[in-house]
Design brief:
heterodimer; A: alpha/beta; 5-stranded parallel sheet; 4-stranded parallel sheet; globular; B: alpha/beta; 8-stranded mixed sheet; 8-stranded parallel sheet; 14 helices; 30% helix; binds zinc ion
């Protein structure tokens, strides 16, 4: 079987088989990062542009590591979006990229649909590194890889996502990916931050954080953006922590072991208490490691690599 | 002055309850005679209409001509040419131009441009508030004198109830309609499409139907209070139609329009971040489309208007949230509606013509909408048999932002007569 897509725009459009393929391909690539010389010549001669219209050190660095470990030539372009001419910038950017004969583009953009927009106008492979409130597919994949490592499976897992669901691309990618892989997904957050139609995606809505903790094997704690408080989505950070915070006390009350994920960076004492963030149940650093492997797998597959060839590719030496 | 004999067509005139194969003679800009086998006097130009429908010219009470200010998107001339090519003999021009049509001179300018172009008649609609800012009343009297027929801040909602009440009260001096674009600004926020499953999936900010309903209800209540004539622009959701129905039953002077796109498309058209499906109010749910069709057929919604809103290709070529609202509609309205509503058995052909000609004339209080002897000769000839595919590249409009490109349709206007002059013929 081959990975036949040209772009990775979101997990909504992927099949369970394709997701499985990416996760499986990531496994042998993990080993490369443990070597003394962390490099294989898989993407040698390929040019990749990391196009970040929104600052994100974590995601950009992770992609850059993945690209470098596969020996690609990389260019980083970070543009702070000027408010009025965002659209024009995107068209102009597409034209410029086309003229520069780039092989792959990794794009993060504040507008939902921007990666798709680009993919319809250029010849390169396009990878969505987060668009607006829409999707963050590599984050969803690395979350799934991390869960699969712990439980050996995704099917049948109960996963709760806590926080700002409305504005979260991580939540959407998790929902699509996990549901396709047979997991059950629930969400929990202030009603001002949970979209009314999320149930129609096959997701359970938990009004209380205690209930989501009681029922789930895994919880994914989303980062709370401070500007949501300023726009009155909730009254204060203290109150958010009081009602939705993942605290040691609540975890203990849940009465069973829960795997805790967080896409980072964390607001300690707001969505997650510091002792939980550093505690034995969290796998936040594992997520970071898996992020590089997932991104290597995605780059490899989009560049035409065969899933079966991943182990072979990983065993190559620079 | 042209003399025309439109020969052998099926004349449909809903107001005068005519539906028969007749000849129609035009002279001195008016309908001179209507009858079987009329003689063609010397020098008369004959338009063969056998197998075609001859109807009163369509009237679009809601278009954006973009002149002055955005002549790259549309001008009075190109807008009027698009109008006559779509079978429209008159259009009402919204005031959100740059500068805003909020004074006598600006109204006069648009009328002069329309006369100079020589296609459709243009009825300027003046701004309710100066600069559309919602803060102080524009000089309605001066604009009426120059030829304005109604007032609106369209593009913006008049968000203050107090301002709306004052505008309505003041408008009773002239007894002209106050038209509102009903969307509570504070609820719309940065919303880009209908709040629903599609918006949730695509990660786009939604606009709930309630943002419209609240303003429709408020305005109807204010119309009752003020006694003004009030008209709801581009009604988009089921419950707002219910509110209009209720106030009409009370005897409040309220009327409403609906656009072809709200009658035919749902928010599913946004799929793939299609910016040509981005408009305000947004495309709604299947249930809303069904309710709007029902309300139109039942007479709760009075008329159809396109909200023709030209935008330059470059501006729609953007990420969805950044693209401007609006789609063009003059050249697609009749074929789309004939195909969907008449062939789809929602409205009879006569009822569709009623909603697109006499009804808007009544709401605006302008001439037209009738083919009785002595009436202004604003006439459209429609071919109901031609099956064709809408092609945005063939438009007379300067803009291409249509959600109907590529749609297979039946029927189109083939000749348009304005004030007795044959101003446009298909392939002519
Ligand atoms: Zn409007
Ligand atoms: Zn409008």
């Amino acid at each position: 079987m081959l990975f036949n897509r040209k772009h990775l725009l979101g997990l909504e459009e992927l099949t369970a088989e394709e997701i499985q393929m990416i996760l499986d391909t990531a496994v042998p690539f993990k080993e490369i990062s443990e070597r003394q010389i962390k490099k294989v010549p898989v993407l040698r001669g390929k040019t990749i542009v990391n196009l970040f219209f929104e600052p994100s050190t974590r995601t950009r660095t992770s992609f850059e590591f993945a690209e470098k470990r596969l020996s690609a030539d990389t260019i980083n372009i970070s543009t702070s979006q000027s408010s009025v001419v965002k659209g024009e910038t995107l068209v102009d950017t597409a034209r410029n990229l086309e003229a520069m004969k780039i092989d792959m583009v990794v794009i993060r953009h504040g507008a939902s649909g921007a990666p798709r927009f680009l993919s319809e106008r250029i010849d390169s492979n396009v990878i969505n590194a987060g668009d607006g409130w829409h999707e963050h597919p590599t984050q969803g994949l690395l979350d799934m890889l991390t869960m699969r490592e712990r439980f050996g499976r995704l099917a049948g897992l109960k996963v709760g996502i806590i926080g700002d669901i409305t504005h979260s691309r991580v939540a959407r990618s998790n929902i699509w990916g996990l549901r396709k892989m047979g997991a059950e997904v629930g969400v929990c957050g202030p009603p001002t931050l949970v979209p009314g139609h999320v149930r129609e995606l096959g997701v359970k809505v938990y009004p209380r954080v205690e209930d989501v903790l009681a029922e789930c094997d895994v919880i994914n704690v989303l980062r709370i953006q401070l500007e949501r408080m300023q726009s009155n989505m909730f009254p204060s950070l203290q109150e958010y922590n009081r009602i939705y915070g993942v605290t040691t006390r609540r975890l203990r009350a849940a009465g069973h072991d829960i795997l805790i994920l967080h896409p980072g960076p964390m607001n300690r004492g707001v969505e997650i208490d510091s002792d939980v963030a550093d505690g034995p149940q969290q796998v936040i650093l594992k997520q970071v490691t898996n992020g590089v492997a997932i991104r290597m797998a995605v780059l490899f597959l989009l560049a035409g690599g065969k899933p079966a060839g991943a182990a072979e590719a990983a065993s190559m030496r620079e | 002055m042209d003399r025309l004999l439109i020969r052998g067509g099926r004349v449909i005139d809903p107001v005068n309850k005519v539906d028969a194969r007749l000849d129609l003679l035009v002279a001195e800009g008016k309908v001179a005679a209507l009858g079987q086998s009329l003689d063609a006097p010397e020098g008369v130009r004959v338009v063969e209409a056998a197998g075609k429908v001859v109807a009163p010219g369509l009237i679009d009470m809601h278009v954006h001509l973009r002149e002055p200010g955005r002549e790259d998107e549309e001008t009075v001339e190109t807008g009027c040419l698009a109008a006559v090519a779509g079978g429209f003999t008159a259009v009402a021009a919204m005031p959100n131009t740059d500068p805003v049509t909020d004074n006598q001179a600006a109204v006069g300018y648009i009328i002069r441009e329309a006369i100079r172009s020589g296609y459709a008649t243009v009825y300027p609609v003046g701004a309710i508030t100066k600069g559309l800012a919602g803060e102080s009343l524009a000089e309605m009297g001066g604009m009426i004198e120059a030829g304005a027929v109604a007032f609106t801040d369209d593009g913006h909602c008049v968000n203050s109830a107090e301002m709306m009440l004052k505008a309505m009260k003041y408008s009773t001096i002239f007894d002209v309609p106050i038209i509102n674009h009903c969307e509570d600004k504070s609820l719309v926020g940065g919303g880009a499409m209908n709040a629903g499953l599609v918006a949730t999936r695509l990660g786009l900010a939604g606009v709930a139907a309630e943002s419209e309903e609240i303003i429709v209800y408020r305005d109807c209540a204010l119309a009752r209070l003020s006694g003004a004539r009030y008209h709801v622009a581009h009604l988009s959701c089921a419950r707002s139609a219910g509110i209009v129905e209720r106030f009409k039953a009370e005897g409040v002077r309220v009327s409403a329009e609906v656009t072809p796109h709200h009658l035919v498309l749902t928010d599913a058209a946004v799929e793939g971040y299609n910016t040509n499906a981005k408009m305000a109010p947004p495309l709604r749910r299947t249930e809303d489309v069904a309710a709007l069709r029902k309300a139109l057929a039942a007479g709760v919604i009075d008329c159809i208007a396109t909200d023709h809103a030209p935008h330059h290709y470059n501006e729609k070529e953007a990420a969805f949230a950044d693209a401007p609202n609006g789609v063009i509609g003059l050249e697609t309205a009749f074929p789309v509606l004939y195909t969907e509503l008449v062939l789809g058995k929602v409205l009879s052909l006569g009822a569709l013509i009623e909603k697109m000609s006499p009804a808007p004339a009544r709401v605006l209080g302008v001439r037209g909408g009738s083919l009785a002897q002595g009436q202004i000769a604003d006439i459209t000839v429609l071919d109901l048999d031609t099956k064709w595919s809408i092609d945005k590249n063939s438009f007379y409009s300067k803009s291409r932002n249509t959600p109907f490109d590529g749609m297979q349709v039946t029927g189109r206007a083939v000749a348009t007569v304005v004030g007795g002059r044959l101003v446009w013929e298909l392939g002519g």
